Amino acid sequence: MSATPDVRQAVLDTAREMYRKGLVEGTSGNVSGRMPDGAVWVTPSSVPYETMGLEDLVLLDPDGKVLEGSRGPTSEKDLHLACYRAFEEVGGVIHSHATYASMFACARQSIPAAIEEFVVYVGGEVPVCDYALTGTVALAEEAVRHLRDTSAALLASHGMITVGATPAKALHVALVVERTAHIVYGARVLGGEVPLPEKTNRDFRGVYQLMRTSP
């Protein structure tokens, strides 16, 4: 496995940054990155991000079999692996519990594309998945169903999942969604967000589609 350090390091760096940015607390959330051969590095279960090292990460084959690592993989491994099976352009997956995005997930309300960068990086409105129990194949299937046309989805009463060409890009999507959720929450206090013009949505969605398939 000597050819794997770049993706492995990217997963660790992204996990630490996710924690620093406040998208998770304690040991919640998880990060993964796909290798060129299809194997997937994932964060381990129940290891604090402050002390997590490369030796704690776990390498899985596409079916979830452990190839390398002494710790147990994240309990949400099926969520990550389902995204890789469904979308060949995806190289990084993040599951986070960002505060404002989770508020929308608990309220079963989608996050609208209220600002321009949201469409460019996320693809449009972020939908809410039907409720499914954490750690289950049902949750993984429900998430994939909502990620075909957008890079983020809300997990009902749970949190958020984001995908990208790399773990870092999946994190950027999560940060854009969380920031927009905060903005929309505030805009509704002021009377409600105003939708973007349809032409803006259409034009920027074209940019998003190019970005999603670019390495």
Any descriptors?
215 residues, alpha+beta, L-fuculose-1-phosphate Aldolase, 7 helices, 7 strands, 41% helix, disordered N terminus
Secondary structure blueprint with pairings:
Elements: H1 5-20, E1 30-34, E2 40-42, E3 58-60, E4 66-68, H2 77-86, E5 92-96, H3 99-106, H4 116-122, H5 137-146, E6 152-155, E7 159-164, H6 167-189, H7 198-212
Antiparallel strand pairs: 1-2, 1-5, 2-3, 3-4, 5-7, 6-7
Helix pairs in contact: 2-5, 3-6, 4-6, 4-7
What does this entry look like structurally?
By secondary structure, this protein is of the alpha+beta class. It has one domain: 3-Layer(aba) Sandwich (L-fuculose-1-phosphate Aldolase). It has 7 helices and 7 strands. It has helices at residues 5-20, 77-86, 99-106, 116-122, 137-146, 167-189, 198-212, and strands at 30-34, 40-42, 58-60, 66-68, 92-96, 152-155, 159-164. Strands 4-3-2-1-5-7-6 form a 7-stranded antiparallel β-sheet, with helices on both faces. Helix 4 packs antiparallel against helix 6 (167-189) and helix 4 (116-122) packs parallel to helix 7 (198-212). The longest helix is centred in the last third of the chain and has 23 residues, at 167-189. The radius of gyration is 17 Å and the shape is globular. The model is unreliable at 1-5 (pLDDT under 50).
Q: Return Rg in Å.
A: 17 Å
Tell how many strands the DSSP assignment holds: 7
One letter per element, helices H and strands E, the order comes to HEEEEHEHHHEEHH
The CATH superfamily appears as Class II aldolase/adducin N-terminal domain
Strand content: 5-15%
